[in-house]
Each structure stands twice: as C-alpha cells, then as structure tokens.
Structure of DUF4352 domain-containing protein:
Amino acid sequence: MNRPAVTLSVLALLSAGWSAGCSGHAESAGQTTSTASPSSTGSSTAAAKPAGHIGDTLTLTRADGSTIAVTLEEIINPATVTPGPGDPGVTYIATKLKIADPGTVVIDGDVNINVSLSASDGSTHVPDLKNVSECKNFDSGMFRLNPGESATGCVVFALPHGVSPTKVKYLPSSGFAEDFGEWTLSNH
C-alpha cells in the first residue's frame, strides 16, 4: 500500500475522531491560519444569512448542534497595543465581541480561532493576539459559558497602514460547523 496515502488516511481519521470526541463542549479543534468556508453535505449547503452590522447579534449553530449568539459591539480603529508600542508598520484594529450561550448546554471555545477580518485590499487577516488598552481580551481568546451567560472581549488584528477593515467573520467550532456569521463594516 502507498505509505503517504496510509499516513494521510490515519491522520484524517485521528483528527475526525478527536473533533467528534470534543464536540460536546469544545468549540476549538485546532488553529488554522486560512479562512474556512462552510462545507456542504451532499447537495445541501448552509443557508446564506444576511450580513449583520455593528451592534447586530447573530445566532449561529455550532458543529454539535448547540447555538452561540455573537454580537459585534464595536470596531476600535486604531487600537493601542499594551504593553509597549507594537509594530510601527501596522495599524491595530480591535473587534469587540459579546459571546453568549442562549442554549441549554455549556459551551466553550476560542474566539482567536473563530474570527477573521477582511480588508479593503481584498486580504483576509487572522488575529494578531495582542492586548489593547481600549478593551479587555478574552482569556487568551478562550471562553466557557453556562446557559444564559455571556462574555465580552476584543480580538485584535494588524493591518498595513492605509488598509481598512471591511468585514468580520465568525466561524463556530473553528470552521467545522456549516453555519457562519458576517458583519459588514461601513465607514471604516
């Protein structure tokens, strides 16, 4: 048998088994730096939802069928990195998010894996993992919520000077869910 094919098959099975075993609570199954898109099953795909705007709450379905409510509360542009001045070659942008558990089961996850930012130059950015003085970070991106609870924090991005944010995207379950939410940013 072809050794690379066997290795890839084993890794895929292990990854799928690990993800399935964690889907009861864990929203994060591993960090990726590429933007995931909703997957399709057979001929059905996730229904396209209208894009939200700053202040809108989007209720999304996670990979395990539970729900998460995500509100883009504010865009802080520019944001001030703390401690220290940060990289002088970029502008730091903070997306202030409120994550809520509207369901009946405990949910947890990592917003730094689930959020991406699109920019005016057509690029997509992953979080920069910096802290800013304008708002608190989640617990290094992590959250754990009981039903009815919520947490608010910032996810920070670094954009080249002259490039502005155009869209924020939230992918539940690290992109393993078919659902996703987007907020279109105007005047940014």
